[in-house]
Amino acid sequence: MDHEADSHRTDLMTITRYVLNEQSRHPESRGDFTILLSHIVLGCKFVCTAVNKAGLAKLIGLAGETNVQGEEQKKLDVLSNEVFIKALVSSGRTCILVSEEDEEATIVEPSKRGRYCVVFDPLDGSSNIDCGVSIGTIFGIYMVKDGGEPTLDNVLRPGKNMLAAGYCMYGSSCTLVLSTGTGVNGFTLDPSLGEFILTHPNIKIPKKGKIYSVNEGNTKNWDAPTTKYVEQCKFPKDGSSPKSLRYIGSMVADVHRTLLYGGIFLYPADKKSPNGKLRVLYEVFPMSFLMEQAGGQAFTGKQRALDLVPKNIHERSPIFLGSYDDVEEIKALYAAEEK
Ligand code: FDP
């Protein structure tokens, strides 16, 4: 009998145990973060179950449609948003919530307020729901600034000020990837236990990758550095093999692959969308935070992504993120363009 393998099977590092271990390294900690995270995890488990049942339960219909019983059906992204908002408010640990689904930020009522601000996209990649492609939840967490009423200034801050960031991917398995600022860890939901178990400890992105990931349908609208970069991926000048193209069109799935296999994910600016498509607070920042924590880089075409200071909660930015060396190449092309 392989005792070592057996001990791994029976000594389960759940996400809660992992975060409690981290917490014990900070004796001053009150356990608030652990409580907040357990509410985020609850939201992820709920959405995972709803996504898995979606085809059967007819959750996919348009928001506002009525089902045969005459009840109004909720679209999966609307339902996911409600679940996360309720879970986060009831944690008693949040004061401001920014969701992709809501025009305005939610300011938590005083009796339920805590110290954390959570920015999130409850169900990213929703155009992929109907065909069963992987989708996910993305989140970032800030600590409220000291004193006074919680205001939007608390979230209109650079991504480097986030305390933690992560995503949960609803795919062939349900995987939660988290960074609390000391590296990146991946946890997979064991459906029989209902627990996320540490399956990908200390994720490091390869220094250079063999894959580029972009919506090439937008080529005619790209700027010169992006066009040149993608050309270099296909026709490398240094004699190396061309990179492979992989594009799912669901950010969580494309970024997850990039994190594990290396390479680069691009959603650049183009003539039609000068600020790109992806949202700074709950797409660009959390994914950039994870990339840097895993040893990669994230760049906007102008600056380090995590240095950006958003002016409004739903602001967009171009983004190039992934393996360190691959992002260096696109940075060099933008630098050359500026000269
Ligand atoms: P979706 O429109 O399906 O919600 O920001 C949303 C997003 O998906 C990302 O998940 C994805 O990376 C991107 O948009 C895909 O955009 P394109 O269809 O323009 O490639």
UniProtKB/TrEMBL annotation:
Alphabetical list of InterPro entries matching this protein: FBPase_C_dom (IPR044015), FBPase_class-1 (IPR000146), FBPase_N (IPR033391), FBPtase (IPR028343), Fructose_bisphosphatase_AS (IPR020548)
Protein name stated in the entry: Fructose-1,6-bisphosphatase, cytosolic
Predominant location category: cytoplasm
Ranges of residues in domain Fructose-1-6-bisphosphatase class I N-terminal: 13-201
Family the entry assigns: Belongs to the FBPase class 1 family.
Chain ranges of the Fructose-1-6-bisphosphatase class 1 C-terminal domain: 205-334
Family annotation (HAMAP family): FBPase_class1
Entry keyword set: Carbohydrate metabolism, Cytoplasm, Hydrolase, Magnesium, Metal-binding
Cofactor requirement: Mg(2+)
Reactions listed under catalytic activity: beta-D-fructose 1,6-bisphosphate + H2O = beta-D-fructose 6-phosphate + phosphate
Subcellular localization: Cytoplasm
Record has Hydrolase as a keyword: yes
Gene Ontology MF terms in the entry: fructose 1,6-bisphosphate 1-phosphatase activity; metal ion binding
Keyword Cytoplasm on entry: yes
Alphabetical GO biological process terms: fructose 1,6-bisphosphate metabolic process; fructose 6-phosphate metabolic process; fructose metabolic process; gluconeogenesis; photosynthesis; sucrose biosynthetic process
EC number from the UniProt entry: 3.1.3.11
Source superkingdom: Eukaryota
Gene Ontology cellular component terms for the protein in this record: cytosol
PROSITE patterns named among the record's database cross-references: FBPASE (PS00124)
